[in-house]
Design goal:
Helices cover about 45% and strands about 20% of the residues. With about 300 residues, the chain is α+β, with helices and mostly antiparallel strands. The relative contact order is 0.13. The C terminus is likely disordered.
């Protein structure tokens, strides 16, 4: 299947592994998410590009490298693959409705080559397009048209999908060049937190990485860093590090390593505490998680 549409997910946050499974069977997945009770994601990354368009309800906040972006309904954000970010979905209302499109890097890169854009710089970073531009160019309609591809003759599907992706890329490129990008007034940046986040991303498997160490590294007090970190990333330093380690651990387990190896390689030092945290976060033990991946037919590779 070239395009997969998940009709409607309510209070559901796809893990990285689940998302990878969807994209193994297709090249584009279009999902309508509604969040009410499940209000915030943990810090995570995806092996594919992601486009998010809040449709109605609450503003949405995304944290990325010490930057906190507020996305209003009608605005659209592009996340390149492997970018760590976290989201809060009920900022100004009790319900958030979002259109989310996940695009495999393979077909995206093929479309870029055919578009003649020659690896534009904007695709390496987060891009936010303002609501006026999204509406004027009917980008929501373009994303929703991708869902119709499975109903087209199979010998035409890849050509049409490639054409629609090229159209999307050319629109984004022109809007970026015309400065129709949006960094809302409520968005803010912290150099201090950016420095801390970048260090964490590069060293989270180091078992000696702690909030106290980061405070020394950034030449500030632990209390000040902890307050600023929570404000700009929506998570505590401890939870941020734990979530990155846990994501790495899941990758290690999926790659076929033992649970103890995955635990140690990810920076956890207390095996019993790790098992408890894993079960709390995922609702199952690491061995049950491995069995679930095996039942889904997930290949054991990074």
């Amino acid at each position: 299947m070239i395009v997969q549409k998940i009709t409607h997910c309510t209070d559901s946050l796809l893990t990285q592994e689940m998302a990878q499974i969807h994209l193994e069977e297709c090249q584009v997945a279009v999902t309508w998410f509604t969040n009410q009770h499940n209000k915030q994601s943990v810090v995570h990354s995806h092996p594919y590009h992601e486009i998010v368009l809040p449709v109605s309800g609450s503003d949405v906040q995304y944290s990325f490298l010490g930057n906190l972006y507020t996305l209003h309904p009608g605005e659209m954000v592009f996340f390149p693959a492997e970018i760590y970010h976290a989201g809060r979905y009920t900022v100004t209302d009790t319900v958030s409705d979002r259109l989310v499109v996940q695009i495999s890097t393979g077909i995206w890169d093929m479309a870029i080559r055919r578009s003649g854009l020659s690896e534009p710089q904007w695709q390496k970073n987060i891009v936010i397009l303002n609501a006026h531009a999204v509406s004027t160019w009917d980008l929501r309609g373009l994303l929703e048209r991708m869902v119709q591809i499975p109903h087209i003759r199979k010998d035409c599907q890849e050509i049409i999908l490639s054409s629609e992706l090229i159209e999307l890329q050319l629109f984004i490129n022109q809007l970026v060049e015309d400065q129709n990008t949006e960094l809302p007034a409520s968005s803010c940046t912290s150099t201090l937190v950016s420095t801390a986040v970048e260090y964490i991303r590069d060293h989270y498997t180091d078992p000696g990485l702690t909030a106290a160490f980061l405070a020394k590294y950034t030449f500030t007090s632990r209390e000040h860093l902890s307050r600023a970190f929570k404000e700009y990333t929506m998570e505590s330093i401890h939870d941020y590090i734990k979530n990155l380690r846990m994501q790495n651990c899941r990758r290690e387990i999926a790659a076929g390593r033992s649970v103890l190896e995955a635990c140690t390689n990810s920076g956890f030092t207390n095996y019993s505490s790790f098992l408890k945290s894993f079960r709390t976060l995922h609702g199952m033990t690491p061995m049950q998680y491995r069995a679930k991946l095996k039942a889904m037919g997930t290949p054991k590779k990074d």
